[in-house]
Target: Class I SAM-dependent methyltransferase
Amino acid sequence: MRLDITTLMSFYDSPLGQSANRAILERINALWGDLSGLDVLGIGYAPPFLEGLEGKPRRSVCLMPHSQGAHAWPDGERGSATALSNERELPFMDAIFDRILVIHALEETAHAPDFLREIWRVSAPQARILIITPNRSGVWSLSDSTPFGYGRPFSQRQLKRLMRDALIEPSAWTRSLYTPPIDWKIFTSSSEGWERAGEIFVANFGGVNLVEGTKRVQIDPKTPEKARVVVPSGLRPAVSLNKDL
Model:
């Protein structure tokens, strides 16, 4: 069951949603850095994250699935950069986006392979695609009081396999959301401390997986997968790198 747009908006307006937004956005900016001059697409429910990206992208567009619903974004007088569409038929030309952020989307689609191939189609050559899903091992996937408790949670290995099948080569990953998914001030006001402690002591149990991939035209299935772990400065990696990733 896909959550509707009003539920997503209400969550990100809440203190818990705002703390989740800050934690995830910190990881996104650590992965992507300055996006000035690039074309950026957000798929699913991405407005809270697109607004906090570093730099000034040349173009930012938000695609929301028709079964979810949509709202105008961004606020202002320049008009809306939101599109409402079937997630299996994205209304864009081939190879036009340099960065694609997917959040509140993959875990709720019934057509993951087709969805990911559409993402591949609209990605520019060497585009970087960041997919964020609930972590199967995290407590956020067990709580239906947040949007991360709906749909299918993934392990990092499952998510990487889906991406590789769609010709998206995993290149970096991290985790986020170590704050308990409880909308109490004692947790939301200290979310930064929870994130720091979680990275050190319970690295595998972050609430979401973030896996970045690069568009490839052809992938040799015999080539070992290599991934880099990227986290904000001052944080330890979610797990140590090893040659089996």
The mean pLDDT is 88. Residues 15-32 form the longest helix (18 residues). Helices lie at 5-13, 15-32, 47-50, 112-122, 156-165, 185-188, 191-201.
